[in-house]
Design brief:
This protein is an alpha/beta fold. Helix content is 40%, strand content 15%. Strands 2-8-7-6-5-3-4 form a seven-stranded mixed sheet, with helices on both faces. Strand 3, helix 5 and strand 4 form a beta-alpha-beta unit. The model has no long low-confidence stretch (mean pLDDT 95).
Length: 384
């Protein structure tokens, strides 16, 4: 039977490709964004506790009340925005599901959706599968900042939404207070919605601050603010996230959510709710990953790799233009197969093939692994 694909340009994601290549060639996997260390033992014990207690059936579609209440309290404490946990907070099966649900709930055939490149790879398929039209705006290549004049030029009467990602994957950049003000002006007096991917909200470095769109009086009214427990608590495999949005948006979000996944893992929801009482677990997360970033940077600094600024997330971009003329995909394959370190090329984060000589590494690894990988990368320069 011949089936017309909704995503003709898409095959297996670059993350799956590079992780599989890492396994095949016994390479250190700095490609896919997940920690190689376990989560806190206490969190594991809490999950087991709630399993033994019998919390093993369907959770309420919108999430267990105790967790939604904890999320709402955290957002208000950090960003000053009150969300009613009953009808404005929804627990999801990961942030990727939340992104798809948010886009599906509002994007219709022919709607334009603005996104910034380099962009996380799920955004465009989400738009296209709902009949939407992606409108690509490049970030400034020097520091990955926003060109708001270009945004104004790209907005049309068909613009339904803007997707914003900060802290930003793959660049590690952050939106600023000025960016927030610009976005407020750009969308003021329009019906343009915002899908705000904030999954790395607690991972910022060098005293820098994450500005959630929930903290803006103007933008919060039109925003789906999405975050992830997996990134915060080193539990990416549990696939748990949430969406905070005003009631009118949450109503539409939940209509889709109930038919996409219905509800998320019950005992884990209860465990997170209890664990969130220890605020230092997420408040100190930035310091934890800043130390890991610095370990890697110190090991790789005196090489021909040029280090791009990394203000957030657990990703570091490496410019290899002084080392090789290979394309980023060729260089990533070379590092994986010949040097023993798997990385991610930057070009899959763009619609068109990028000519930048840049690869991304993930430093959410043990210090020993980071040092070993850095040693291999140092040695790679002598072999090209």
């Amino acid at each position: 039977m011949k089936i017309k694909t909704k995503l003709p340009e898409w095959g297996t994601s670059i993350f799956t490709i590079m992780s599989r290549m890492a396994v095949e060639h016994d390479a250190i996997n700095l490609a896919q964004g997940f920690p190689d260390f376990n989560c806190d033992e206490e969190l594991l014990e809490l999950v087991h506790h709630f399993q033994i207690k019998g919390f093993n059936q369907y959770a309420p579609m919108q999430g267990v009340p105790v967790l939604r209440k904890a999320i709402a309290e955290k957002i208000e404490k950090l960003y000053g925005r009150h969300y009613n946990f009953e009808n404005e907070i929804t627990v999801t099966a990961g942030a990727t599901q939340a992104l798809f649900t948010a886009i599906t709930s509002v994007v219709e055939q022919g709607d334009e959706v603005i996104l910034f490149e380099p962009a996380y790879d799920s955004y465009v398929p989400d738009i296209l599968s709902n009949g939407g039209i992606p409108v690509y705006i490049p970030l400034n290549l020097k520091n990955y900042s926003y060109d708001w004049d270009l945004v104004r030029k790209k907005i049309s009467d068909r613009t339904k939404a803007i997707i914003l990602n900060s802290p930003h994957n793959p660049t590690g950049s952050l939106i600023t207070e000025k960016d927030i003000k610009e976005l407020e002006q750009v969308t003021k007096g329009t019906d343009i919605l915002i899908v705000s991917d904030e999954v790395y909200e607690h991972i910022t470095f060098d005293g820098r601050k994450h500005f959630s769109l929930a903290g803006s009086e103007e933008l919060a009214k039109r925003t789906f603010a999405i975050s992830s427990f997996g990134k915060t608590y080193h539990t990416t495999g549990w696939k748990m996230g949430y969406c905070a949005a005003p009631e009118n948006l949450s109503k539409e979000f939940r209509k889709m959510h109930q038919f996409i996944v219905f509800s998320a893992n019950t005992p884990i929801q209860h465990a997170y709710a209890e664990f969130m009482k220890q605020e230092e677990r997420y408040l100190l997360l930035g310091k934890f990953y800043e130390q890991k970033r610095n370990v890697f940077l110190n090991e790789i600094r005196n090489t021909k790799f040029k280090l791009k600024p990394c203000d957030s997330t657990y990703f570091q971009l490496l410019d290899y233009s002084s080392i090789s003329n290979k394309t980023d995909m060729e260089f990533a394959e070379y590092l994986t197969k010949e040097i023993g370190v798997a990385v991610i090329p930057i070009s899959p984060f763009y619609k068109c093939t990028s000519s930048q000589s840049i690869v991304r590494i993930c430093f959410a690894k043990t210090d020993e692994v980071l040092k070993e990988a850095a040693t291999k990368l140092r040695n790679s320069q002598a072999k090209i």
